[in-house]
Design goal:
This protein is α+β, with helices and mostly antiparallel strands. The longest helix is centred in the C-terminal third of the chain and has 12 residues.
Length: 161
């Protein structure tokens, strides 16, 4: 379907042109029109994707109710992790990824207990956290910050509630 690339340019595309690349002239006109102009005519990625947004900061789910709908386990660069599709109170869906001793292990145990990787499972209190100190040199863990001069870093493990 023909559509204009930007409102302030006369760059009109046809189905054939949409299958190819922009010419240098078209790209120059698009850049001159500017991000805001181009963005106002751009299609939303969600229209082309069957995936859900990924929760980038798990802190946004601390003490916030959500429902686990389904989850899968995958092999990653640092071992196995879980990807869970969750539903928030506003009915939006999102993906929660985790490979830690918290959420990941809880989904593993839940799968073993109920014999499936589907909910719905209600998490009335959302996520909770446990904070501690981790030494990246020795892999030691401490509840209080040690003063031994090692490479201690604050760490957080998230848990389903």
């Amino acid at each position: 379907m023909p559509r204009k690339a930007t409102q302030s340019t006369d760059v009109t595309t046809t189905l054939e042109a949409e299958m190819g690349r922009f010419t240098d002239e078209e790209l120059t006109r698009i850049r001159e029109a500017g991000f805001d102009s181009v963005a106002s005519h751009a299609a939303n990625f969600e229209e082309f994707s069957d995936s859900y947004p990924i929760i980038r900061d798990k802190r946004e789910l601390i003490a916030v109710p959500f429902v686990s709908l389904e989850w899968q386990f995958h092999e990653g660069d640092h071992g196995e992790f879980v990807s869970a599709v969750i539903m928030r109170r506003d009915n939006s869906l999102a993906v929660l990824n985790d490979g830690s001793s918290g959420i990941y292990q809880q989904y593993k145990k839940m799968t073993e207990r109920i014999g499936r990787q589907r909910g719905p499972i209600m998490h009335k209190e959302g996520l909770s956290t446990s904070e501690y100190w981790f030494n990246s040199d020795t892999s030691a863990i401490s509840r209080q910050r040690p003063d031994d001069g090692g490479d201690w870093r604050k760490a957080t493990t998230f848990y389903l509630t």
